[in-house]
Design goal:
Elements (H helix, E strand, L loop, with lengths): L7 E2 L2 E2 L18 H13 L7 E5 L6 E5 L9 H15 L1
Antiparallel strand pairs: 1-2, 3-4
Amino acid sequence: MLFCTPQRDGGVIQEGCGVTDRGDGEKDKFTDKELLDFLQAQNDKEIYTGKVIFRWSRKKHGWRLQETSRTEAKKDVREAIADAIMKSVKDE
């Protein structure tokens, strides 16, 4: 398994970055765990705060998983998503 931060070369993300070779020819498919691990690895770099929340856009542009300084933000990506799920269940 290879995970890295995609490098831009003339505005194009280099191919092969983050590709998993399972030996079955399915190099372009990732498991949910691999996808979440990639997001967690980005968060762990703490470029800004290293804390994230799932939130809806105030301007109705959809949703986002956002690195933020908000007090309710979580260090763990999975925890931030789980928190959003729990809040949505309460709102129903």
